[in-house]
Fold this sequence. Notes:
single chain; about 300 residues; alpha+beta; Ribosomal Protein S5, domain 2; Alpha-Beta Plaits; six-stranded mixed beta sheet; four-stranded antiparallel beta sheet; binds (3R)-3-hydroxy-3-methyl-5-(phosphonooxy)pentanoic acid
Amino acid sequence: MTSASAPGKIILFGEHAVVYGRPALAVPVTQVQATATVSENSRGGIWIEAPNVNLSSALAQLAPDHPLAAVINSVFSTLAIARPPACTVYLQSTIPVASGLGSGAAVSVAILRALSTYLGRPLTDSQVNGLAFQAEKFYHGTPSGIDNTVVTYARPVYFVKGQPIKTFRVGASFTMVIGDTGISAPTKESVQAVRILWEAHPARWEKVFDRVGEIVWDARQAIERGDTPALGTLMDSNQALLQEMTVSCSELDLLTEAAHKAGALGAKLSGGGRGGNLIVLVLKEKASAMAEALLAAGAKRTIITTVRAR
Length: 310
Ligand code: PMV
């Protein structure tokens, strides 16, 4: 029996514009995890058990473009295993699905590592990242690759589509409260909505994406020098541009307002938007009160996470 786990993630800055070549910053969230366990079975064939999504099926019964089937098959084809041994891939995850916390990428990374290790030929990080990116296409359509990168390497990432992974220094630890709207919003749809806007007025949206790119760059520098108040202001500026891209929603706006009333240093949606999670930058000592304020304003759950100086 072999197990592997992968963390969730939040995008601190730059979602959506990252699809158009601008940089983005993301960090892992280790409080939530996806775990894949591979074990021998006696009924024959390959089985997938994923109680979180009510799935219990033979691999052969799933469509080839089912994301879980695609990930499992990609391990066999990469390792050139024509006759895989009978086994069961059991998935467990505490990462909410379709809410911007990288659940799809974490499940893929956990399966790729657990299954390849079970087969005695563990994939390298670079192979895991590449195969998880292919799987992201089934979830997202046109993913930038940020989710699989931050989840595979489990460290802060300054990400530019198509470029090798770059990490960044964190000058001073900072604390975020993540508030879940409880609205599951497929990233594919919000990415498509932004594409429609961009196709109609490319020059206008390129300018918006440029402004996001500048914010990301300024944010990276603020994080490196440990300037938490500046970081908060930059989050608010990024949120205003995400609202312009129509990827916020009334529930996210309501939580943003509540966060500011409760003393947030900055707040923005994280990930695809139109639901999913809000991230709120707070002084560490105010984190519990902020979580309470978000719950009182309608958040379905909260996670407090600290990005540690490194
Ligand atoms: O998976 P999510 O919802 O965290 O979103 C990923 C970020 C986007 O920029 C919206 C899409 C992408 O592929 O980069």
